[in-house]
Design brief:
The chain is mainly α and 212 residues long. Helix content is 75%, strand content 0%.
């Protein structure tokens, strides 16, 4: 079904929000989360503090907004995976394809490089990392529901969707941590690391780690 084009007022509001978000991320990545104030973000866009709070509840929401955009797209991508794919394969392909198409998601607001640098800020800022992990728990529950629906299961009666998502989320958490503290902070590096770690789940869980 065709969608109604946004009105002029809606387009102006979106431009203001995007400008505030980009200014916030630029400041967070250049001078740190704690060292950035709402007033500085608003001043960078030449709007009032009151205007900032029309779009964001506070600095924390602005700091996590780009990541939230990609998470929303990832959940939608899992829903759209071919129905014949097993759960972990659907999750794997959705996240790897997401790294390929990330430009389409974030570049209307900020360059991908800025998005990647924001990840390091989140990992190194306790209040942001805590909020990110809280949100990840909510996303896990949403994904479990998506997987259960794909498989025709009752998510509350069958533990497998939550178990599959828990395994996947654990791998992604390790990937994020290793990548954000490593030397190669490129997009290709996190995509390669994601594929490597997801492919290693089977051997890690079922293999014999001992060497002669």
């Amino acid at each position: 079904m065709p969608t109604t084009p946004p009105t002029l007022r809606e387009r102006k509001k979106q431009r203001t929000r995007d400008a505030l978000l980009r200014a916030a991320v630029e400041l967070f990545t250049s001078q740190g989360y704690e060292g950035t104030t709402v007033d500085q973000i608003a001043e960078a866009v030449d709007v009032s503090q009151r205007t900032f709070f029309r779009y964001f509840a506070g600095k924390e929401e602005a700091a996590l907004a780009l990541v939230e955009m990609t998470v929303d797209r990832f959940v939608a991508a899992v829903r759209e995976r071919p129905p014949h794919e097993p759960p972990l394969e659907a999750l794997r392909q959705a996240v790897l394809d997401g790294w390929h198409s990330i430009n389409e998601v974030v570049e209307s607001v900020a360059p991908v490089e800025l998005y990647l640098r924001m990840y390091r800020v989140i990992e190194s800022t306790p209040v942001l990392l805590a909020a990110h992990l809280r949100r990840s728990t909510e996303v896990e529950e949403e994904l479990a529901g998506v997987i259960a629906e794909r498989e025709g299961l009752d998510v509350d009666a069958d533990p497998r969707p939550r178990l599959a998502v828990a395994v996947f989320s654990g791998v992604m958490r390790v990937t994020e941590r290793q990548w954000s503290t490593g030397d190669d902070f490129s997009l290709e590096a996190i995509r390669s690391l994601t594929a490597e770690y997801l492919d290693g789940v089977g051997p890690a869980l079922l293999g014999n780690w001992r060497t002669p």
